[in-house]
Inverse folding.
């Protein structure tokens, strides 16, 4: 054992004579001074407070959540209500279970189970934006994955555990924070079984992915490779508990309305049955009309359907909604371009006809709000490349002819404020 008089603190290097107290390790090979002990105690105390604050997450009411969603997402009122209530109950459940954890089992102590969400809606209707905005409102980690890129472990493709890695990375590798995040899995309808009958061959991209997702969507402690990719026997894994992670799945589910229509039409047979026309057929309220058997017939396995008890539908966006999306949200494209032009010294203005043309063209593309960005980027990129001199011109007016035909926009001179086409 070392002479205590010659020893120094293993943390700060302070010699024994300068420290009030020098504490030795059990084997006498390491020492720590009283100052370092106090610093360590403060660090542990701070970390304990951080964990408690996060676990006792304060969340807005469903009405407040929807109000904040309204600022970013146009339309989809029913979906916003369903999601607002779902996430509110999810995090309320986490707080409830945390406060009751470790208490003696009582008859009135109920373990609240997780309710994941399934969103059904056409491409470009705002599924991803809704979930991303929810995570932003609640200030929780968020990760998005495409189900079509996932495969079962051992096959060429991306392991489902890598979805959890994205969440951990977005939480700055704070696992406890990631364990209360939100994961959105898009294109979930693309991993449906190819038929209702089970095949003897492996359906790697369909039923196999659903089976693999079952493990992480429910409640399990998953082992995640820290660098992504495939697991290796000697690789150190990150352990993450998925019990409190909210999973939201989304997909277009093309043809699901036909399955629902056939089932409802079959129950309406008879002399006095009302005959449904094609317009009525197109209007399906998934929250009310959908039954688990419909999703099973579509190709989702029963176990997977059972993990997604909350279902909501999103509507196709009409021209009026697309025009609002261009102008009203906090992060609308027109507001973004207006700010970009302001940074370059220009005032930017869009004529009403120009906005109407973009909405009409997006309707033709049938890609919802995604079509808006494609149309806008095509024209605005060219304009921003050939911007005029800000010392000469102060304002740029975007016309319908510019958006439709690519003609020159209207420019306003800085000195005279005269219009120059």
């Amino acid at each position: 054992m070392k002479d205590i008089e010659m020893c120094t603190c293993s943390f700060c290097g302070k010699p024994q004579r300068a420290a009030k107290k020098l504490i030795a390790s059990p084997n006498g090979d390491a020492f720590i001074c009283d100052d370092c002990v106090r610093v360590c105690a403060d660090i542990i105390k701070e970390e304990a407070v951080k964990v408690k604050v996060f676990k006792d997450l304060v969340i807005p009411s469903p009405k407040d959540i929807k109000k904040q969603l309204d600022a970013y997402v146009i339309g989809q009122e029913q979906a916003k209500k369903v999601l607002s209530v779902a996430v509110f109950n999810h995090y309320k459940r986490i707080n409830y279970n945390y406060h009751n954890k470790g208490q003696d089992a009582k008859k009135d102590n109920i373990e609240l189970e997780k309710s994941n969400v399934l969103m059904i809606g056409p491409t470009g209707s705002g599924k991803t934006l809704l979930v991303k905005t929810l995570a932003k409102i609640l200030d929780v980690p968020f990760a998005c994955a495409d189900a079509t890129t996932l495969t079962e472990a051992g096959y060429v493709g991306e392991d489902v555990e890598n979805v959890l890695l994205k969440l951990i990375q977005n939480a700055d590798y704070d696992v406890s924070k990631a364990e209360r995040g939100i994961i959105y899995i898009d294109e979930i309808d693309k991993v449906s079984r190819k038929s209702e009958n089970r095949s003897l061959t492996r359906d790697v991209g369909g039923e196999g992915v659903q089976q693999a997702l079952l493990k992480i969507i429910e409640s399990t402690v998953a082992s995640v490779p820290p660098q992504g990719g495939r697991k290796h026997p000697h690789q150190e894994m990150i352990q993450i508990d998925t019990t409190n992670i909210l999973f939201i799945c989304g997909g277009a589910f093309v043809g699901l309305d036909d399955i629902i229509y056939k089932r409802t039409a079959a129950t309406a047979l008879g002399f006095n049955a009302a005959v449904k026309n094609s317009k009525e057929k197109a209007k399906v309220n998934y929250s009310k009309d959908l039954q688990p058997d419909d999703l099973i017939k579509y190709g989702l396995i029963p176990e997977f359907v059972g993990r997604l008890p909350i279902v909501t539908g999103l509507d196709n966006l009409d021209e009026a909604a697309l025009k609002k999306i261009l102008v009203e949200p906090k992060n609308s494209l027109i507001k973004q371009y207006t700010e970009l032009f302001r940074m370059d010294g220009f005032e930017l203005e869009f004529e009403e006809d120009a906005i109407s043309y973009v909405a009409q063209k997006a309707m033709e593309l049938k890609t919802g709000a995604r079509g808006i960005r494609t149309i806008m980027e095509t024209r605005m990129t060219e304009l921003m490349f050939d911007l005029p001199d800000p010392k000469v011109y102060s304002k740029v007016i975007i016309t319908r002819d510019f958006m439709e035909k690519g003609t020159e926009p209207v420019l306003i001179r800085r000195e005279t404020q005269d219009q120059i086409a």
About this structure: The two ends are 90 Å apart (CA to CA). Residues 146 and 186 are 5 Å apart (CA to CA).
